[in-house]
Amino acid sequence: MWKTVLIVCAQVLLLAVPAYADSYDLETFLARVEEHSNDLKLVHKQRELAAAEKSAALSGALPSIGVEASYNRNLTDAYMYVDFPASEDGEGGVQKFNINRNNEYAASAVLRQTLFNPIVYQAIKAARQYQKLTDLLYEAGHQDVITFAKKAYDQAILLRGIRDVTSASRENARANYEQVQTSYDQGVVSEFDLLQAEARWREVVSQASESERNFQLALIGLKNLAGIPQGDDLTLSGNLDACPPPPERLPLTAVLDQRPDFNALLWEEKLRETNVSAERAGYFPRLDASLIYRFSSQSDEWRFDESNDHVIAGLTLTIPIFAGGHTRARVHKARVELDQARIRLDQARDNVYQEVESVHLRLNEAHDRILAAEAARNAAAKAFEIADVSAANGLATQLELKDARMVYDQSQVNYYATLYEYRAAYYDWEKATGQGLAADGSGL
């Protein structure tokens, strides 16, 4: 009995504990994304991979040291046969001698150093270039993730505004319906007016539910993006009001210098050039030096008897003569890859110019639409206020009131949408020009 009571009390206490809640403005949300974004973690791992590639390439130029030890147990004897010439007393002929012992021990240590190998040198150069390329790709990926996070945050703010508009419209429609119901009960208005007021209220209720659903889905997306547990409440404290004037155009050369993705293509071109040299290095000889220490011993007992140790120093020169055209084919392939990299670089230059011009057009258009949407919202608000007062005094029909409210609601939604479109275009401009907004969103 008491056990059941304790379990019930524990469950009640757990349900009474509220989920963790926090308020995020754009700055704190982006800081959370920086720390918990899986996309950024994947790009960061690519940088670690580049560092490992560099270390592996450097290892080809560094000396290598290896130690080896072995033990053999001879289960049968081995003999050496020697044919001795006959001596004065007539003895001679073939005689055999035991040449092994029960236990054989051996150990060696080898030091090798590459003295000349163009392939190794080109690999080291390529590894450094690849690391620089990866750093630029990380920066470009970082900008993509942060730009996407800013747009997602602002989109959630937009959906919150739409939800608030539809919620206010629902409450207004409900209050109007209740007022018309009272007037109908008093015989002041017709049943047709009552039905119109009810229809408007029911319709707005459905719209409010839909806008609430869209906003909640946006919050779920933000939580996934920033690594916020789905069980936690998420409150957005930002707004869409801050909109700077459209920026001035920048020279294309300045834009290209700031674009990490374009600079990554420049480093890819250098990497491909190095790869051509590396493949051509297959035609050249290589020279390696070695220093070897060897120890051996054998005995019928468990000790080191009949031991030998010696040191050997040597040079090895390897000259490629013919490999069936393998090297020539790889050089040709590397040159084709270099040509492809240069073509992609030219394409990227044209695409950057087109992207920047497109973003400028979007910014100017969205800025003009903000001014027009604001004026339309003010006019619609005044018109709805007049229609609301007129309907209350019986000077306007419910249909006219509904139309006025719909125009007013749509003007508010359009105004919020133009603010979002402008801010989204501004984020794209920052990314297109390689500027990159500050993590706190101070660019806005």
- How many domains comprise the coordinates? 1
DSSP strand count = 8
Average pLDDT, all residues: 83
Query: How many DSSP helices?
Result: 9
Q: Determine the fraction of residues in helical runs and give it as a percent range.
A: 55-70%
**Quick one: overall form?**
elongated
Rg (C-alpha, Å): 41 Å
| Uncertain residue ranges | 1-21, 437-442
Percent of residues in β-strands: 15-25%
Distance from first to last alpha carbon: 63 Å
SSE string, helices as H and strands as E: HEHHEEEEHHEHHEEHH
Keywords:
444 residues, Outer membrane efflux proteins (OEP), 4-stranded antiparallel β-sheet, disordered C terminus
Descriptive account of the structure:
It is a single chain. The chain is elongated and about 155 Å long. It is built from 9 helices and 8 strands. The chain has helices spanning 2-16, 26-36, 38-59, 118-185, 191-226, 252-258, 260-280, 326-392, 398-432; strands at 21-24, 64-73, 79-84, 93-98, 103-116, 233-236, 286-299, 308-318. The longest helix has 68 residues, at 118-185. Helix 4 (118-185) runs antiparallel to helix 7 (260-280) and helix 4 (118-185) packs antiparallel against helix 9 (398-432). Mean pLDDT is 83; it is low at 1-21 and 437-442. The chain has a single domain (21-62, 117-284, 323-432), classed as Outer membrane efflux proteins (OEP), CATH 1.20.1600.10. Helices cover 64% and strands 16% of the residues. The two termini are 63 Å apart. The protein has 444 residues and is an alpha+beta fold. It has a 4-stranded antiparallel β-sheet with strand order 2-5-7-8, with no helix packed on it.
